[in-house]
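hey team, just a heads up i'm posting the complex here instead of the shared drive bc the drive is being weird again. everything in one block, sequence lines first with there labels, then the predicted structure for the whole assembly after. its two chains so it's a bit long, scroll down
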Amino acid sequence: MTDLSIQEASDVARDYRILRDKRKRRATITKHLFLVICSLVMVYPLIWMIISSVKPDDEIFGNISLWPSEFVWQNYPDGWEGLYLSFTVFYKNSIIITVLAVIGNTLSCSFAAYAFARLEFKGKNIFFALMMMTLMIPYHVVLIPQYLLFLKIGWVNTFLPLVVPRFLAGDAFFIFLMVQFFRQLPRDLDEAAMIDGCSPFKIYWAVILPLSLPALATTAIFTFIWTWEDFLGPLIYLNDIRDYTVPLALRNFISQDSVSMFGQLFAMSILSIVPIFIFFIFFQKFIIRGIATSGLK
Amino acid sequence: MKKFFAKNGPGYFFLIPWFIGFFCLALGPILYSLYLSFTKYNIFKPPKWIGLENYEFMFLYDDRFWKSLEVTFSYVFMSVPGKLIFALAVAMLLDKGMRAIGFYRALFYLPSILGGSIAVAILWKQLFEYNGVINSLLAKIGIEGPYWLNDPNYSLYTLVMLGMWQFGSPMLIFIAGLRAIPRELYEAAEIDAASKWKQFYAITIPLLAPVIFFNLVLQMIDAFKTFSSAFIISGGAGAPLDSLNFITVYLYNEAFAFYRMGYASSLAWVLMLIIAIFTGVAFFSSRYWVHYENERD
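-- predicted structure starts here --
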């Protein structure tokens, strides 16, 4: 082994470090480049939709240039009034249904979850197992009988079939999510409250719920997004255009044969996803954590 | 009796909404749906018991049913693996501590959260028009694009691509799973001069197996239930030539366009059994290829 002076050794070490850093930096740049290209491909369709919503109709197709020759903002007001009824009506319907669904789902699921997580009663394990089993039932199996039931009691063509089930804790997934969350809360809290003479309802309302905001928020956010986007439910239960939700109205837009309204169609499509987009921006943390920890869609 | 209620009352009280929901909207409908699947029922006349006739017709004579199975299975087997491979590849690129990771994560997840909406289905349909963006891009590189939406040989691919575009939620789950793999394993492998590829299949894949399995089951169940996008892109009827007649679309039309509630119910039961079988197979086969951390000795 040859002797290296300290000076030489440190030179070699430095050269090596520089080389390694350089290689690392190059790898990082390549990776970012790759990710940026991926992101562009991913969002390209959305950007195309946004641009198309302000393009003149004859420029939308057969033309990949993103920049419109002129901006047709008029597509928005025209699209808003583009159907037999104005989108104000459809938005109002969507908002009513969604808000009620969010309240109903969050309340009723937390109700059931509180019973499963904190209270003792006969048959608890059996009910819990049954509840978990409903997770595996595809909606399509209960669809027809539920429709027949609602038809029989005269609820078809009202919002009730889309709202009332949400007050009946039908979403086993969220019950499970909240059960998991409630179980983490220290039992001492309930016991202290009980000694102070609180009823179980009071404990639920004043102790458990305020401490469970993350779980409640996750439930509320996903219920909002899913209800807002829901298509099959409104498609089956709402037949009168005055009751249409925004997705149903959009569908009407494309089933009309007037081919020349694509700009307006895209304008309304954009507006229909704006609420979800806003939710996504503001509640990203909850959404991402909700998926990463529980596999929500 | 009084004692029984003092002890169990609160638990039952909190479960009241769930009880009503469970019996009226889950258990009851499932049983009724099973009954209906053995009947002929058009809503206007009471159900008529016909035994196994629906199933007999379905399996022996109904070509549209077999076609819908073929379409649904092709979709599941093409879109789910593609989606998971994308999701894993991107998740592995998004290292912890990397710059702008939050930005990329949000961007890649965006299509998934918007993906269920009608707006995106409409957008997709326009992208793949004959003179749409995709074909314009293909023309740039000298390829003449097909009639994506009108050619039964291609129409399903548009939906597969739409499915793969939404790889966001398995990606988030993979990111969480990758974080849980101890860094030291890779460091040790690095010292032993194991290549990146070797590290991938000797460390990442085996340790990530439970997460891959979880994603696989979840995504498959989801893919079997695809409805809205297929409905919109196929113009509501599974066109062209039934090439987009997913079993859910077929079921919907049988029930709500032709009012063949009995036959539609038997389709729903077949769908449920398929999902149950696949979930079961995934669970049972998992013991051969999934290694949970605490099972190793």
